[in-house]
Write a structure and sequence with these properties.
heterodimer, A: MetI-like fold, 2 domains, 13 helices, globular, B: mainly alpha, MetI-like fold, 14 helices, 2 strands, transport (chain B), Sugar_ABC_transporter (chain B)
């Protein structure tokens, strides 16, 4: 690469700049819109310089929007809370169920273990609505429709395969000899699991948990089908905004900014593990 | 000898035989998933029934009628065409763009690493919210992209609300969200390639196009295949972006499989047709995922081998 000509370096620079603009511009623009009043947003041509206002965020956080026609209630904070609660609980349940299973798949090649592991993996690739549509009818009969319990159960479809396959890889990376040595010392398998395997796979488990959280947070279709307004997360809630009357574009933008900030922040924090997580452990970053 | 054994601390807690243990450990995860397998079987049953939520009394088995009627149903052929077109266009464009960006960022430097991390941000944005962002930007009244389009002479460019440009618009959003996925996988692949062949080629003064087509691409193929199939599996099932952007409209321009099944279920309450559509989509994804898993396993073994 040392022999690159000046022309090539310029072309590379231009290409990279275009790439960065294309991928960053929408986030930047929505971020800017969230600090504007409807008046400046509607101005043509669009303004790059404006007097920033926090009014959109205040309206969302207090849940009250003052308009000429009166005060309007916005349930956005409720959506945000639902997102936090659903994602955190789903990931916690997934870790509780998935980590022991991942350990079993990594350490014990038992009868049918590969089949079971692949069945779990195949859930990730099956069309969501194939399962969701009959599930709505069942949930109505079982009284699980529009409950956190039902949603968290279904969210396992997103979190469990991810956690199982990533964590399994981390357990496989631990040399079995370390565990044998500890067990020869007379410790039970559970002590070995808790004192040796879990701490060694710890960073991987944390990364899988963060990724599962991001995917749970970003999910749209599950809650769209199974939840009504009071249980909806931000992905569904923000979409309802655009059709509801009285809400202004600045507030929609502010809602988007608040909704994507947690996942973007977590992704930056966990970026070292993203490659491995996104490829379900097939590619190491 | 016995004295030595008795000196060991006794394993605490209850004992589970070695044979049963793995089953016990994986059972809870399995039970949760079995609850999800039942609706899958229900879908199969529904797909062989005449079943409308609005006419529950007329519910009966009609066996293959839902499937047979697809052959003469232009709406079904439209669904198949749009789904394949959407999946094909997004995956090809994302692959080309992702590969190009990965090659641009291949060299490890602070700037390149910083850019590659920044480019992950669209991927971490919820696709439904990404669609909403683009919806705001393409609004005919104030959208910045509508304004920019008018600057280059495209007056009244209607983006997702015109049948002729709706597909283009949702494909654009898909590219925005998912190109970073292919980019980051291929970048990891490029950086993990052995350096010797490249050094040898540089010593021999081999032309760079030859290096790219005869060394880089072949060695990168497993990564390209895995990334492509991953995206293809996702893209043929795309729902979030299309539903959030246009709800399948205008008209039936964008009624891809999952959107069409959703509309059939909730708007025309035709459960049978909706289930049959999902079974066909499942058959396609099952076929694709079998090819995918082979490649994915090969890569996974290689990654584990390096560890």
């Amino acid at each position: 690469m040392e022999h690159t000509s000046l022309l090539e370096r310029i072309l590379r620079g231009v290409a990279l700049t275009l790439v960065v603009i294309f991928f960053m511009f929408p986030i930047l623009w929505i971020f800017m819109m969230s600090f504007q009043t409807n008046e400046t947003i509607l101005r043509i041509p669009p303004q790059l310089i404006f007097e920033p206002t926090l009014a959109n965020y205040t309206a969302l956080i207090t849940g009250k929007l003052m308009t000429a026609a009166g005060t309007l209630d916005i349930a956005f904070m409720r959506n945000l809370w639902n997102s936090v609660f659903l994602s955190v609980t789903s990931v916690a349940v997934s870790l509780l169920l998935g980590v022991p299973a991942a350990y079993a798949f990594a350490r014990h090649k038992f009868r049918g273990s590969e089949d079971i592991a692949f069945t779990l993996l195949s859930f990730k690739f099956a069309p969501a609505l194939l399962v969701l549509l009959p599930l709505t009818l069942y949930f109505q009969k079982l009284g699980l429709a529009n409950t956190y319990f039902g949603l968290i159960w279904v969210y396992q479809l997103i979190c469990l395969p991810l956690i199982l396959w990533i964590v399994r890889g981390y357990f496989e990376d631990i040399p079995a000899d370390i565990e044998y040595a500890y067990r020869i010392g007379g410790h039970s398998w559970f002590a070995t699991f808790r004192k040796i395997a879990l701490p060694l796979a710890g960073p991987g488990i944390a990364a899988a948990g963060l990724l599962a959280f991001i995917f749970a947070w970003n999910n749209f279709v599950f809650a769209l089908v199974l939840a009504s307004a009071d249980k909806q997360p931000v992905t569904v809630g923000a979409l309802a905004f655009i059709t509801s009357s009285g809400i202004q574009y600045g507030q929609i933008s502010a809602a988007i900014v608040l909704s994507i900030t947690p996942t973007l922040a977590l992704a930056l924090y966990a970026q070292r593990y993203l490659v491995e997580g996104l490829s379900l452990g097939a590619v190491k970053g | 000898m016995t004295a030595v054994v008795s000196q060991r601390p006794k394993p605490s807690g209850f004992r589970i035989s070695k044979k049963v243990l793995p089953y016990v450990l994986s059972l809870p995860a399995l039970l949760v998933c079995i609850g999800i397998l039942i609706p899958f079987l229900t879908s199969v049953v529904y797909s062989f029934q005449r079943y409308r939520l609005s006419q529950p009394w007329a519910r009966q088995f009609n066996w293959g009628d839902n499937y047979i009627s697809f052959f003469t149903d232009p709406k079904f052929w439209n669904t198949l065409k749009v789904s394949l077109l959407y999946a094909g266009t997004t995956v090809v464009l994302e692959l080309l763009l992702g590969l190009a960006i990965a090659l641009l960022l291949q060299k490890r430097s602070t700037l390149n690493n910083f850019i590659s991390i920044m480019l992950l941000m669209p991927l971490m944005t919820a696709p439904a919210l990404a669609a909403l962002m683009w919806k705001l930007m393409t609004n005919p009244g104030f959208g910045v992209l509508s304004y920019l389009a008018s600057l280059i002479g495209l007056q009244d460019f209607r983006w997702a609300s015109s049948p002729s440009t709706a597909l283009f618009t949702v494909v654009l959003v898909d590219i925005w969200v998912y190109t970073p996925f292919i980019m980051i996988l291929l970048l990891a692949g490029l950086r993990s390639l052995p350096t010797q062949p490249f050094e040898a080629a540089a010593l021999d003064g081999v032309p760079r196009s030859f290096v790219f087509f005869r060394i880089t691409l072949p060695m990168l193929t497993p990564y390209i295949l895995t990334a492509t199939l991953f995206r293809l599996l996702d893209s043929i099932q795309q729902f979030d972006i299309i539903y959030a952007m246009t709800q399948g409209g205008p008209g039936d321009t964008l009624t891809v499989f999952q959107v069409e099944a959703y509309l059939n279920f909730f708007q025309s309450t035709n459960v049978g047709r909706s289930a049959a559509l999902m079974i066909i989509l499942w058959a396609i994804t099952y076929f694709l995922s079998n090819i995918f898993i082979k490649n994915w396993l090969r890569l996974r073994e290689r990654a584990r081998g390096q560890a």
